[in-house]
Amino acid sequence: MDEPEADDKVVTLNDIKVAIDPNIEMYTDGLVLEFNEEMNSLVLSGNESDCC
Question: Organism's domain of life (predicted)?
Answer without folding.
Answer: Bacteria
